[in-house]
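Hey all, sorry for the wall of text incoming. These are the three entities for the joint prediction.
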Amino acid sequence: MTDGPVPALAARGPQRTLLLAMNGLTVRLPVEGSMRTVLHDVSLTIRQGEALGLVGESGSGKTMTARAVGRLLPDGADVSGTIQFDGRDVRSLEGAELKRFRAQVAMIFQDPRAHINPVRRIGDFMTEALRTNAGVPVKQATRRSVELLARVGIDDGERRLRQFPHELSGGLLQRVMIATALLTEPRLLLADEPTTALDVTTQAEVMGILDDLRQELGLAVLFITHNLELAAAVCDRTAVMYAGQIVEVRASDLLHRDPLHPYTAALAAARPSIDTTSHRLAAIPGRPLSAFEAPEDQCAFAPRCPHVQDACREARPSLTELNGGLTRCVRAAELRGRMEVAVNG
Amino acid sequence: MADAVLEVRGLRKVFGSQVAVDDVSFSLPEGGSLAIVGESGSGKTTIAKMIVGLERPTAGTIHACGQDRSTPARSLRDRRRRGREVQIVFQDPYTSLDPRQTVEGTIDEVLRLHHSWGKDRRRERVRKLADLVGMDARQMRALPRWLSGGQRQRVAIARALAAEPRVVILDESVAALDVSIQAQVLNLLADIHDETGVSFLCISHDLAVVRQLTQETLVMWRGKIVERGPTAQVLDDPQDDYTKRLRASVPRPGWKPPRHLRTA
Amino acid sequence: MSTAAPAILARRTTTAWAALRETGPIGLLSAGVIAVAVLVTIFGPLIAPHDPYVGQLANSYFGPEPGYLLGFDAQGRDVVSRLLVGARTSMVGPFVVVVLCVTVGTLLAVWTAWKRGTVDAVVSSGLDILFAFPGILLAILATAVFGKGLTAATIALAAAYTPYVARVLRGAALRERSLLYIAALEVQGASPLGICFRHLIPNIVPLILAQATTLFGYAMVDLAAISFLSLGVQPPYPDWGVMVSENASGVVQGYPLAALSAGVCIVLVVIATSLLGQRLHEHAEGRR
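and here's what came out:
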């Protein structure tokens, strides 16, 4: 059951161009002979220069969403719904247009070492795309790489270009990946848990860099993480996913104060606080579900929700607008202000 | 002051030319909970490994339950005795269980190792441990691959508790878990601490987790302890620059990342 | 960090049958061929239609006729019966080689993986030296020193193959040893010997079986060659390798059936073990 066109959201600040629009995206993948739903009815928008956080636990579908945008879904995927980048349908791009798209949408991943060839120098890696796709001469590509390395806080770029990946720490390597992603002057950056594998101090630095770049270059970012606090801190808006569906989209500064979905409230409450000692946490019973495990005829979170009622089990709720955000909870309006979960086991 | 169940003095570990742990001393009181906090390269995991005997200290002493364990165990009997004193729950739930053994089998093996009990008594104890960590009979008969990460960690905790150790080292034991599952396991650990009086040594990079579980905290940086004190105090009023920086790096509502720094 | 749901993780099948099913149709076919060869090894002499040792020279190289499906060999004996009975030495020899080298190889691999450091360095160097000798050369040398027959050749081949097995298994044992459940057992105070035999080795059994299967084929070729050179099984025993050499004269005379059928038997089993072994290996490694 798909929604109509994405509801218009109250703009924050000057209205910027719509860069990415996903509408009713549903993805099924072949697993062990049968098709399994991994994403259901995902609708998102990202504007030029905006940072959208995408938060979820295991099976929430957040990585799959980024892959769908980047046209990196595995073979045999069954996709319905639309993804529009700059007004063009992403799924139907071919040839030269696809190449242009790939230059405009860059992706960085959680583990930089898994995405870089360990036996080639950093310089080769960085300049490869420019040299082979855009035919840029080596000297120019190198110069550009050094510029970008400086932009991400690496001053001795020339030396670094001659090094091999194993000579760099995780944090440095992730900065190199960011610089590489910027080489093609993208307009949208898909960042899939880019700081999860890093120390928290390094994470803070890398987030600072991303933030600066976003402002300097007007770069839009889809920032995927499991860390609700991090997303809310660095993104303009945050979307929360559960069981392959978007359950809430909210302006980040309102997310903790005024959540619109019990899952968001529960997730925030389940995190131990660094400021206060609480002997027991408000844990959500059960475990996070994947899209294919979630029942199709009721709210996916119903089995674990402390506010569940009969209405929740009647049908799968649709994404509706509330107070400038989106929510997939039928009781959202009445529960506002009292979504906190009671402390339990 | 309660007797120290774990006492570490002047601990040092050198790998080649690199000093991983430099002159670390601390004591864990009976029934207490101590955290060692740090990032990668701080040496905190190396300390844990030295305490359980997976690494050998270059210098310094480790005493657990009054017995010296600074050098490797001499006999099988010594090894087993040490296993009854200090146990560990590792970070990775996906490789810390033998994939060919059921949960029951895993815990039963530990019991057979430490006790000469009959089958019935062992089964009873396995059931009690399963209850303690919140697992049902069906899950006990399962192989690890049918269990989720959170469930596997519960098994790892049950296994660690099977021999009734005095100290349990939690080596980033919740770091690999989803937030909602992490909360469940943290609650479980808090309950176990209250019910059994076991002492915790919590190795973590996550300050919030540490606040939840421990009374005292040591902050480590590049092998040295840079700050120590009651957990709440260290987190609310850090003295050392590194601790301050660590604290300031944790995202929370209203947090903004620092302007990016230049590297060498 | 939160990881994918368990269903998406690599699994390890526990039952042999499920593992076999996953090797695909070629794997199953190969297993079938090997199974037939094993059955022939066991029951060959019982189902042989004629006495493999008795023949009339007058029938030498006669073509196929009713009751003598593959005709007669150089000495006028029934080829089918000789093949059925000859399966014994042809199959048992490689089996013994494999059992020996896999046992010793596994023990060495696990020991060096456990101890690491100096022990590993010394043993690995020693094995490297042994590795330099081609199996069949060692086997010929052994028969020259210790006399003809399968015993010397079998032991020599086992010695020659051991370094190869040890090398492959050492890698797997090292990986397994670095997993946390082994560390957990160490911390519990379990004895290293107990850990190795009850946990480490069982978890590398799929790879051990894959190795054993492939090496069976190699051993069979090498031993058949030894017998072909008249250094192994001696006539009148109907070993397949011996049959190829005995009936070689028939090939140039235009009566290839006797030699060819023995050769085909060898080739079939070797190909089957090679294909199955390769698939079992992929299964063992790919399923981590």
